[in-house]
Amino acid sequence: MASTSFQVGTTSAASNDSSSPPAHRVAFAFAPAEPKPKPLIRRIREAIREPMAEFIGVAIFVIFGAGADCQVGLSRNVNVSSSPKGEYISTNYGWAIGLAMAVWTSAGISGGHVNPAITLAMATWRGFPWRKVPAYIFAQVMGGVVGAGLVYSQYIRAIDIFEGGRSMRTQATASFFSSYALDYMSTVTCFFSEFLGAAVLAFMIVAATDKNNAAPPVGLLPLVLFLTLLGLGTALGMQTAFAFNPARDFGPRLFLTMAGYGSELYTYRNQYWIWCPILAPILGAQCAVGLYDLFLYNPSGANGSVETKL
Q1: Is residue 92 part of a domain?
Q2: pLDDT digits (tens, 9 = 90+) for 208-231
Q3: DSSP the chain
Q4: Number of structural domains, the chain?
Q5: Where is the composition biased (Polar residues) (predicted)?
Q6: What b/e sequence results for 225-244 when a residue is b if at least 16 CB atoms lie within 10 Å of its CB, and e otherwise?
Q7: Which phi and psi (to 5°) does residue 80 adopt?
Q8: What pTM was estimated for this model as a whole?
Q9: Does residue 27 fall inside a structural domain?
């Protein structure tokens, strides 16, 4: 606080008399008040607000996507439903709507990454703080765990009927939550399918958030991502179930471990779970954002740089 001066010992008449001595001024300096500490609950809330947005976003993503997979897949069993409830395109819509809702929920708070591959790409190429990366990725994976758990609790009785009992858990229903490849796919084609899909997704994200490249209003970003993932699922989704997101696959896989699905979740195709739905999307996103920045991105353009959260 700045010092405050008070005039004392004179009258107004004396102050107007030019022959009178100058008024005596006494300055009192006050030390700045100590800032009031924020309540503990508020400090905790501020510390976890961004990771919590990522957690909730991924949970919403998985609820829509895995829920659609369960409804379409389980309803094909006549003991579960008298008629099928949806087709393959239904699952594409489920995951696409889930991504749109996830980004709509979290974009204004955390940037709406909802994908460890996007978080790592933004940290590598766009100045997203590396110190935030571990918390973001942990929150994203845990969101996948919780989202899968909520869907599983909704469909557990149908899964029991489909599998033939509570003690039976196989890849047939695990594939409703995590991604698996078709039998004819080779190791290389599995990897490239996930790499390519994640690369296209990441490329569209940086294009749609580039203010120097006809970026839509921020509120329309969920619609852009809805169309992108819907198109990717329609075009590239059949062969590896289009994870394109490590948290969307690994989080539900962790939940399935707790639900009793066994070691086959991890031994399938020589640890498919790590090199296809985790490493391939991470590398695909890195290459896509690097390609965009190398040839198309102009951070010093008329509209300035994009927000580093996105």
Answers
A1: yes
A2: 999 999 899 989 999 999 999 999
A3: ---EEEEES--HHHHH-TTSPPPEEEEE--PPPPPPPPPHHHHHHHHHHHHHHHHHHHHHHHHHHHHHHHHHHHTTSTTT-SS----HHHHHHHHHHHHHHHHHHHHHHH----SHHHHHHHHHHS---GGGHHHHHHHHHHHHHHHHHHHHHHHHHHHHHHHTSTT---HHHHTTTS----TT--HHHHHHHHHHHHHHHHHHHHHHT-TTTTPPPGGGHHHHHHHHHHHHHHHH-TTT-----HHHHHHHHHHHHHTT--THHHHTTTTHHHIIIIIHHHHHHHHHHHHHHHHT--TTSTT-PPPTT-
A4: 1
A5: 1-11
A6: bbebbbbbbeebbebbbbbb
A7: -95, -45
A8: 0.86
A9: no
Q: Rg (Cα) of the chain, in Å, rounded?
A: 28
Range of the domain at 202: 51-295
Residues near 6 by Cβ (< 8 Å), separated by ≥ 6?
Answer: 25, 26, 27, 28
**Does residue 36 sit within a domain?**
no
For the record, the structure tokens of 68 come out as 């659609």
Name 7's bridge partners: 25
Report the CATH number that the domain containing residue 107 is assigned in CATH.
Answer: 1.20.1080.10
- Is residue 63 assigned to a domain? yes
